[in-house]
UniProtKB/TrEMBL annotation:
Keywords: Membrane, Transmembrane, Transmembrane helix. The lineage of its organism: Bacteria, Bacillati, Actinomycetota, Actinomycetes, Kitasatosporales. The keyword Transmembrane applies. It comes from Streptomyces viridosporus T7A. This is ABC transporter substrate-binding protein. InterPro entries: Peripla_BP_I.
Length: 951
């Protein structure tokens, strides 16, 4: 500041600004004038210096044009012209000002009404008949209709240059953003992909924005805008309402529209009549907008960020430019509203015009402010005292009895000596504390961008983790009933757990999966169609059975043969039950992984799902004996879930767990039956050598082979064979390492005549190849005994590629006696009727799809579990199903009679289906299979040597 007056006034302004940072002090209209009319120009320069100083300090400010107005306008109209352009945010500072630009929706609405009122098209539509008469009412309605048409053409906004259209469109998009978020949230409730919800929200916003700009129509949701709510509810306009409703409700658009239309016409008529009303309405709208722009309780806390009040500068006010009327209107509106607004006005006035701002009739000579109790020599102290006295007298000065009072005006006379320009070295400029408030740092665009970036990053990491962990995942949610786990060998992943929602295990098969993969996908679709029909038509009258099997493929096991065959039996049982029984059967699929390598995860998923689905009555499957089988059975035992397995031949499981039921002959029972074959290979007086060759299970989960090896070795020793040291072969990358073992067996001092093979079906081919080429074995008769896993082999006499070497005879046990039971079961007729791929073909027990017995056993296991769960044609609970299983006896099943009535709580039951088969090479080079002896399910009569004769 170049003068002492400027320094002191600037200091007083900054003192008010400092108070504004922490409270809401009353902001006066500071009017500066010289005591000597000769110094009027210096006052104008002082106001300009104050403006420049505040602009450098980052204050939001505007400068009203105070040049001479046309003489044909009355003082009020001239004052209105000073305010017309203040609704443009560009008039209130540049980008250097704090926070974002101001918005003036209320001031814009008032200006839009004025422009519509003054539109030339309205001149011939204003009513001419007296109000209250029929003609007057009709003319008034037509005028209101035409006014609304003009406002709609203007979009209820003041006319703006074309370059402002983009900003107006952005404002509309911001208005419709909550609608877009609501649309996206509504879309998410239907559980689509996340990008569909985002597109739904964006599409809704674009649609609303397009409809909002239909030419000739009012904007959408006009009555819900903040300026419209103010327009209808402010008491300043209540006198013009003429008893019209001011109700604004989202769900009552017609009534709300009528209210705003009536209010717009009433205000337009009042503005047309002129007087002080238009000017005071402009001032009120400006104050309301500025108050809203500094509201501390707003969503963006803008009142805490804008720590400097807005300022309006008027370089020279006078009657010729309407400035005097503007100041009077400001004081009148503030006195009437009795609400604090943040606008600080600084104006300069000529010394001869200062009397127009004083109280008193007709405007007498200038009256200085009342003297304070102290007489300081410096203007600085006088300013402080004047402000304190002004603020203290503000309450009384607003009284209506104080005629012509301007209580909100603080007039400051400046003596000549205070306006003398100082030396440049003495110039001073004071600034209030300008440390950015904490709110501006924490709640700002930058912090919002940072928070959004962190949220997006966290969401992306979370989404990536969900997609990496679960089979079915969305943006931030996932179906936790299934998980992605590493496939055997570490090559790829497989989906394990219980399939709910849209999970399909067939979509996760390895690319090497053969036609069995296509069959699995088809079966999944068939089961889910049947489940949908059960839920749709028989809600509340069904039970749920979970099938748990190997429904994955891997490089080591490229085709899920076992799982597909077992699932075929489960689906066939479901169709038969749902067509012939009142209580319906729902089937859920659970994948334990290739070779059931992840059956622990599957058991946990089944137990957790059963906790919130009481219709789950039990599990069919878990047909592979692994090291984890006791833990799996215990986990489901704790959850109260019984298990009925078709092919798991573990001897220890029914002895250790009361919830375990199996249709498969136990390993111990199989070894005893194979002992009938081994006994016939003994020569009187001689004790041939025998050997147990077992798969090494040290680094695998397999327990079946170790159980077979133990029981097989005990059987051979009991039958009188001389036992050679057992051998264990390793499996590397899915291939058995049998060459060294074959050399030891065939080139040793004592070559065994009987080998008990405790391995898997996929290892028998390499073993035959090694034995047929090793000296010492190639020309020697050798018998190989093995368990039920060989029942899955497809020997060449039935069209398969498995075979036995010359001079080697293979004896193996099998779990399903199908030939004897075929004549007493409807299993094959049902299969022909319900399995789509058998259409037009006849199903037989020795067909490729049924010969292994896997389908028949899983079918019978499902039927047994369903019988226990639907006793007396009433859906049973899980606990009741567990108890009812020990009373199950079903005739006419695919493997015979399923009878659990003699099953002890912790012990081996009898009556399993079993076969002993022999495979030999024929002179034609074909491996031929024949059944030596068998028992169907339900028969407890033991096999004997005569029945199982090998000669």
């Amino acid at each position: 500041m170049s003068t002492e007056a400027g320094i002191d006034v600037q200091r007083q302004l900054e003192s008010l600004i400092q108070d504004f940072r922490t409270s809401d002090p009353p902001m006066p209209v500071i009017v500066l004038h010289a005591e000597d009319p000769a110094d009027d120009d210096r006052v104008v320069e002082l106001v300009e210096e104050l403006r420049k100083g505040q602009q450098r300090h980052g204050t939001r400010l505007a400068v009203a044009p105070t040049g001479p107005q046309p003489e044909d306008l009355d003082p009020t109209a001239r004052a209105v012209r000073l305010l017309c352009d203040l609704g443009d945010s560009r008039k209130w500072g540049d980008r250097s000002a704090a926070y974002r630009p101001y918005s003036f929706p209320r001031l814009g609405l008032v200006r839009a009404l004025q422009e519509a009122t003054e539109d030339p098209e309205m001149r011939e539509h204003w009513p001419t008949a007296p109000a209250g008469t029929p003609d007057g009412n009709a003319q008034r309605e037509r005028a209101q209709t035409h006014l609304l048409r003009v406002l709609a053409r203007q979009r209820w906004r003041p006319r703006r240059p074309s370059h402002r259209y983009r900003q107006m469109l952005l404002t509309d998009v911001q208005q419709f953003l909550p609608m877009g978020v609501l649309g996206a949230f509504t879309a998410l409730l239907t559980r689509p992909e996340w990008y569909i919800a985002v597109l739904a929200g964006i599409g809704l916003m674009i649609l609303l924005a397009a409809l909002n700009h239909v030419p000739g129509r009012a904007p959408l949701f006009l009555w819900l805008r903040r300026e419209s709510r103010w327009f209808l509810t402010t008491t300043f306009l209540q006198s013009a309402a003429r008893r019209q409703s001011t109700s604004v409700r989202l769900l009552r658009p017609v009534r709300s529209w009528r209210a705003i239309a009536a209010r717009a016409y009433d205000v337009s008529e009042a503005m047309r009549e002129g007087g002080p009303f238009p000017l005071q309405l402009y001032v009120l709208a400006l104050f309301e907008d500025l108050r809203d722009n500094h509201r501390r309780g707003s969503w963006d806390l803008r009142g805490f960020k804008r720590t400097r009040p807005p300022m309006l500068f008027l370089r020279r006010i006078g009657p010729e430019n309407g400035g005097i009327e503007l100041i009077k209107a400001v004081s009148d509106v503030r006195s009437r509203r009795s609400e604090l607004d943040p606008l600080l006005i600084v104006a300069g006035v000529a010394a001869n015009d200062a009397a127009l701002l004083d109280r008193g009739a007709g405007g007498g000579p200038p009256v200085t402010p009342p003297p304070s109790r102290y007489r300081p020599s410096r203007l600085q102290q006088r300013l402080r005292d004047w402000y304190d006295e002004w603020a203290g007298n503000l309450r009384a000065d607003q009284s209506p009895s104080r005629t012509n009072a301007l209580p909100w005006v603080l007039r400051i006379p400046l003596p000549h000596e205070e306006l003398v320009q100082l030396r440049e070295s003495d110039w001073r400029c004071v600034r209030a504390g300008h440390r950015p408030p904490l709110t501006r740092v924490v709640w700002s665009t930058y912090s919002l961008v940072l928070a959004l970036a962190l949220a997006v990053t966290a969401g992306a990491v979370r989404s990536y983790d969900l997609h990496r962990t679960y089979c079915s995942a969305g943006l931030l949610t996932a179906n936790r009933d299934t998980e992605l786990r590493s496939a055997p060998g570490g090559d790829g992943t497989e989906c394990v757990g219980i399939a709910t929602g849209d999970v399909r295990f067939g979509t996760y098969l390895q690319d090497t999966a053969d036609e069995k993969g296509e069959r699995l996908r088809e079966l999944e679709d068939l089961v889910n169609e049947e489940n949908a029909e059960v839920l749709r038509s028989h809600s509340g009258n069904y039970v749920t059975v979970v099938y748990a099997g190997p429904l994955s493929s891997s490089p080591a096991a490229p085709s899920p043969v076992k799982g597909v065959e077992e699932l075929t039996g489960v689906y066939l049982a479901q169709r038969v039950v749902n067509e012939n029984h009142t209580v319906k059967l729902r089937v859920l699929l659970a994948n334990g992984g290739a070779d059931m390598g992840h059956q622990r995860v599957t058991a946990d998923a089944i137990a957790e799902y059963a906790e919130h689905d009481p219709t789950v009555v039990g599990v069919v499957g878990f047909g592979r004996d692994l090291q984890s089988s006791p833990d799996v059975t215990q986990r489901l035992h704790t959850a109260g879930v019984p298990i009925v397995s078709g092919t798991n031949s573990a001897t220890y499981l029914p002895e250790d767990f009361s919830n375990w039921f199996s249709l498969a002959a136990p390993d111990k029972h199989q070894a005893q039956a194979l002992g009938l074959i081994a006994r016939q290979m003994l020569t009187p007086g001689k004790a041939p050598y025998a050997l147990v060759l077992a798969r090494d299970t040290e680094k695998s989960q397999d327990r079946y082979t170790s159980e077979q090896a133990a029981y097989g070795g005990e059987m051979l020793e009991r039958e009188g064979f001389r036992m050679l040291p057992g051998q264990s072969y390793r499996v590397a990358n899915g291939d058995p390492e049998l060459r060294l073992h074959a050399e030891r067996i065939c080139q040793g001092a004592n070559v065994p005549s009987v080998i008990y093979f405790a391995g898997r079906v996929e290892d028998i081919g390499p073993l035959m190849t090694q034995l047929s080429t090793q000296p010492g074995c190639a020309n020697r008769e050798i018998s190989i005994l093995t368990g039920d896993d060989l029942s899955k082999a497809r020997f060449s006499d039935t069209g398969g590629r498995d075979g036995v070497a010359p001079r080697i005879t293979l004896y193996h046990a099998a779990l399903a006696e199908l030939r004897e039971a075929a004549s007493r079961t409807a299993f094959y007729e049902n299969a022909t009727h319900h399995l789509p791929w058998l259409e037009g073909r006849k199903a037989t027990y020795d067909a490729a799809d049924f010969a292994s017995g896997q389908t028949a056993l899983s079918h019978d296991a499902t039927r047994a579990l369903y019988w226990a769960a639907s006793r007396e044609d009433v859906p049973q609970s899980r606990a009741a199903t567990w108890v009812n299983l020990r009373s199950v006896r079903l005739d006419g099943m695919a493997t015979g009679t399923i009878d659990f009535t003699d099953a002890p709580l912790y012990g081996e039951r009898h009556g399993h289906s079993i076969l002993l088969k022999r495979v030999r090479r024929t002179p034609e080079g074909v491996s031929q299979t024949e059944v030596l002896c068998s028992r169907p399910a339900g028969s407890t009569e033991p096999l004997d040597v005569q029945e199982c004769a090998i000669d």
